[in-house]
Amino acid sequence: MTIRLFSFIVGLFYVALGVAGFVPALLAEPWSSTVWRNTGTTPDTKLLLRCLPVTPASNLLHLAIGAAGIVAALRFDWSHRYARGLAILMTLLVINGVLPLGLNSYWGFLPLTGGVFALHLITAPIAFYFGYVYLFDVEAERIPGLA
């Protein structure tokens, strides 16, 4: 898999995740106060596919991440920068997702717990690999300054 293909696939996934967050048929109400306490969200937070806490702000964040990935897939150097930036962003979101006192969800505005935390936790090392470790495409592209 090339860095450009990685950017495109991640971009499509996050765009689909962002769009799905706006589809009412895919959203469910948290079924008990235990869910609110365990995910650190507020009662007005919806659950996408009954496991991912989402708000309009998180949907817009996922749409922006996905759109950037699709645009970055057009050029190798953009894809490389996107993978590096995505690795840093996802690592920061993972760290923020374990903070106490409501900081892990920005007091219900941007939930970073539950299934969304797992998605960010999975995305971070993969993006790190393509941004910092996987340099096989650099030889083929011959971009000055990258290798």
Helix/strand-derived category reads mainly alpha
| Helical run tally | 6
Residue-averaged pLDDT = 86
Strand tally is: 3
Lateral strand order in the biggest sheet: 1-2-3
Tell me about the biggest sheet? 3 strands, antiparallel
When the domains are counted, the total is 1
Written overview of the protein:
The structure is a single chain. The chain is mainly α. The protein has one domain. It has six helices and three strands. It has helices at residues 3-20, 33-39, 56-72, 76-97, 115-133, 136-141, and strands spanning 27-28, 46-48, 52-54. A three-stranded antiparallel sheet has the order 1-2-3. A hairpin with a 3-residue loop joins strand 2 (46-48) and strand 3. It is elongated and about 50 Å long. The model has no long low-confidence stretch (mean pLDDT 86).
Q: Would you summarize the structure shown here?
A:
By secondary structure, the protein is mainly alpha-helical. 61% of the residues lie in helices and 5% in strands. It has one domain.
Structural descriptors:
147 residues; mainly alpha; three-stranded antiparallel sheet; 6 helices; 61% helix
